[in-house]
């Protein structure tokens, strides 16, 4: 179904506008003004996020991954907060050296080794790529070499584990809490540096947003694309490496620890490694495409991204593997196959939905979705300078099933990771709870933006595709 908005005869400035760029940019990213609710949320997150990460990791270290035992222990007077803190491993030179080496190595892979993967991997988009148009009208260039960094890092990891034996493959697990302090130091340093930089030497002064509220600016970032030199882009580096490259290494370290402790690696641990490995590899395979997603093309670089990528992601996205070190779960074949299928179907939906939109927008609708020419709703929106733009919202394929079916697939995959851990504790289910909140919030945030951007055309779209995530439910 193709419908046309009023004013069709007006000049088509942007027939296809994949990033919602240019005109609508003012509605993206973080706010210009801070309301009390945003400020309260920022203060809450700044205070409690580091404590949440500490609490989860400490619970595994001292209470076998029980989230309730530390509280009951303290409330019953069996333990004091100081006892828990005193039992927590502190920062060590060993961890500091490992972390310094790790980050330096990733920086070198990022800035010194131009991508060669795109030269021999058919279909892979790497090398120098353009990002989205920024609010100030700049199009940044990025060196997309994350897949290569991932391959080199993992090749070296396996070479060490099976041949060189420079260090134990359990090294990450064995230093997990001391490394937490190092990750925090980097997260806070990067965010603080980015804030100072935005005042004194911003990469693009026109792409800075100041609200006047220090906490909000620190958390949500001021500069849109802070860079050092021409190529070191904070958002691309911290978003992908060191956090996401580390994700699969962390899981491998957990598997090695299971092998060391129990003489075998359980099928649940293999499932976590495989399913999350697919997700990570997908991220790097599509790194150029991620330049056009909300994280890269709409968020400013502050503590939310800097600390989040260094600490929150590697520590909380890997809780299933950590849990399985303390509670090795051997799944029945039927359960293992069921979880594998859930994870693979979730991944398929996630990837295909994203692919369908990408193809649709790239070809301006001149493509086939599920074997047919896609149906769409034609939309218009007006920029602040009064220029009228046109875009299309597809209602075929997965985009006709629900308005954010890519998120649904993501959530199915997330649930599969958690189910590998059985039902002994709530801790490994943190991921699905968190992702549900994150993606539901993102749905609402995105729809709010789309609704103000497309106004009555968005209404026509939501009438044609009434559900957000699960048809008939939400
Ligand atoms: P989407 O890729 O879903 O993009 C949303 C935008 O697409 C809208 O703002 C609109 O932009 C456009 N759009 C909406 N509906 C349609 C339609 N029917 N046809 C064509 N275009 C449409 O959002 P994200 O960037 O949030 O997510 C990208 C992926 O990243 C998702 O798969 C998500 O699951 C994943 N993700 C993972 C996270 C993690 O931590 N693991 C965190 C966040 C995301 P326009 O203005 O151009 O019309």
From TrEMBL:
Residues 17-26 have a biased composition (Polar residues). Pathway: Steroid biosynthesis; cholesterol biosynthesis. The chain crosses the membrane at residues 36-57, 96-113, 176-196, 301-319, 331-350, 414-439. One of its GO terms (cellular component) is endoplasmic reticulum membrane. GO terms for biological process: brassinosteroid biosynthetic process; cholesterol biosynthetic process. Gene3D superfamilies: 1.20.120.1630. It comes from the Eukaryota. It is a multi-pass membrane protein. It holds the Pfam family ERG4_ERG24. Residues 1-26 are annotated as: Disordered. Its EC number is 1.3.1.21. Its main location: endoplasmic reticulum. It is found in: Endoplasmic reticulum membrane. It catalyses: 7-dehydrodesmosterol + NADPH + H(+) = desmosterol + NADP(+); cholesterol + NADP(+) = 7-dehydrocholesterol + NADPH + H(+). GO terms for molecular function: 7-dehydrocholesterol reductase activity. It is an enzyme of class 1 (oxidoreductase). Keywords: Cholesterol biosynthesis, Cholesterol metabolism, Endoplasmic reticulum, Lipid biosynthesis, Lipid metabolism, Membrane, NADP, Oxidoreductase, Steroid biosynthesis, Steroid metabolism, Sterol biosynthesis, Sterol metabolism, Transmembrane, Transmembrane helix. Catalyzes the last step of the cholesterol synthesis pathway, which transforms cholesta-5,7-dien-3beta-ol (7-dehydrocholesterol,7-DHC) into cholesterol by reducing the C7-C8 double bond of its sterol core. Can also metabolize cholesta-5,7,24-trien-3beta-ol (7-dehydrodemosterol, 7-DHD) to desmosterol, which is then metabolized by the Delta(24)-sterol reductase (DHCR24) to cholesterol. PANTHER family: 7-DEHYDROCHOLESTEROL REDUCTASE, DELTA(14)-STEROL REDUCTASE. Belongs to the ERG4/ERG24 family. This is 7-dehydrocholesterol reductase. It comes from Chelydra serpentina (Snapping turtle). The gene is DHCR7.
